[in-house]
Write a structure and sequence with these properties.
heterodimer, A: about 25% helix, B: globular
């Protein structure tokens, strides 16, 4: 219920409310873009109970992966060499 | 492991988000941590903290013949004083699970002769969706749609926990999607007043581990600041459009939290202009009073003072099929998470 799930915007339709078809790994749902009106096709958004609540920032997402690599390096150093 | 490399002292870190609770228990993240770093679960499950009297009011409304009662799925089996919404449905009540409050509004448009009621449960993450449904209903002049509101706010709950004499929490992971809406500004005064680092964190295992790492780093350095691990979704200013809509539709009020008690300025209620959409007023159920089962210790669990396996009823008298309290029913509740992923033990205890 409370979960926010990332999905990819397929297309946007203007109407009474700005809406979009958003794909979640094969499942497509209609999502309201009223709170993220700047999202367009190809963007990733976080969706909660039928509403996009944010647009995923690609640069920030990439940073989490570089943190992971950094931690792997530090862990190897802490363990004192070859794993 | 990087966290072991930096932790020199025991630290207790609390997360306040059911989604994070589940991720931690499911992926065994707490078991990966060095022995000194303890994770405790806070009141991060809005289903779990919905007061019993509100459940009883929901049941009273849902039992009415003219009502189509719409709810998120995990509210259906939360025990009220005597019954639950699933019981109302089994007895013939028109109770329907919906994914979004807008689905309930769609039902209202399609069924003009019925009264459609939506059970609006959730933190700040869900309030913008509820607000939009009420806002649209008012624009359409829809007289057969109303909402039973149970929105609660995270920062006052964090303060209540921190202000408690039995508080052992040194640092917090703040809920990533609550902060996606609200931003990070509300947490700075809390970090400063109670001298606790607060790291806004996401939900994937990597997010939670990074959030813990950032929190422990601050604790080791004696810092108490707000940091944002979930920057791919959370901006410091939050989602201003969503916040504006919530403020237009709702005002902040005191609310009782199941298992914790009344917390000032911790919930949302409709503003006067939206009074006709308030199901509590429309169906005149504001007087329904509750009785709470005594064996359930969900209050202690929600405050991070006990872990589910320490409850004498856990797994025996209290299971997902026969829940005594909301923390076992809700998909985000700590007891449900432990039951689902940790029944084989060994059990970590709050004293370790």
């Amino acid at each position: 219920m409370c979960l926010g799930v990332p999905g990819r915007v397929l297309n946007v339709t203007e109407g009474d409310l700005r809406m979009a078809s958003v794909e979640f790994g094969g499942i497509v749902k209609e999502v309201c873009l009223a709170y993220v009106p700047e999202a367009h096709a190809g963007d990733y958004v976080i969706v909660h109970v039928g509403f996009a609540i944010s647009r995923l920032d690609e640069a920030e997402a990439a940073r989490v992966f570089s943190y992971l690599r950094e931690m792997e390096v530090l862990a190897e150093l802490a363990d004192g060499g070859t794993p | 492991m990087a966290i072991r490399a930096i932790a020199t002292r025991p630290w207790v870190i609390m997360e306040v988000c059911g989604g994070q609770t589940h991720s931690i228990v499911r992926f065994g993240l707490d078991e990966l941590l060095p022995p000194g770093v303890t994770l405790v679960h806070g009141p991060g499950c809005p289903v779990c903290v919905t007061p019993v009297e509100l459940l009883d009011r929901a049941i009273a409304v849902a039992s009415r013949r003219e009502v189509i009662f719409c709810s998120f799925g995990d509210m259906l089996r939360v025990p009220g004083s005597r019954d639950d919404l699933a019981g109302v449905k089994a007895a013939g009540g028109d109770v329907r699970v919906v994914y979004s409050p807008m689905d309930a509004l769609t039902l209202a448009r399609a069924n003009p002769e019925r009264q459609v009621v939506f059970f609006a449960v959730g933190f700040e993450t869900t309030a913008p969706a509820t607000a939009m449904a009420a806002f649209q209903a008012r624009r359409e002049g829809r007289s057969n749609f109303s909402l039973l509101v149970s929105h609660v706010l995270v920062p006052p709950a964090m303060e209540t926990i921190l202000a408690s004499p039995s508080c052992r929490v040194n640092g917090f992971l703040a809920a990533g999607h609550v902060c996606t809406i609200m931003g990070t500004g509300e947490y700075a005064p809390i970090a400063e007043k109670y001298r606790v680092p607060i790291v806004v964190t996401g939900f994937e295992p990597i997010d939670i581990l990074q959030g813990i790492h950032m929190c422990v780093t601050q604790l080791e350095l004696g810092r108490a600041r707000v940091e944002n691990q979930y920057a791919r979704s959370v901006r410091d200013r939050g989602n201003e459009l969503a916040v504006r809509m919530v403020r237009e539709v709702f005002r902040v009020v005191a609310r009782p939290w199941r298992g914790i008690g009344r917390i000032d300025e911790s919930g949302l209620a409709f503003r006067e202009e939206f009074a006709e959409f308030d199901a509590e007023r429309k169906f005149d159920v504001a007087d329904v009073v509750a009785e709470e089962a005594t064996e359930c210790v969900s209050g202690l669990i929600l405050q991070g003072l006990k872990k589910p396996p320490e409850c004498p009823a856990f797994g025996s008298r209290c299971t997902p099929e026969t829940p005594l309290g909301a923390t076992m029913v809700s998909s985000e509740g700590a007891c449900a998470a432990y039951y689902r992923y940790r029944r084989m033990g060994p059990w970590p205890t709050t004293s370790s």
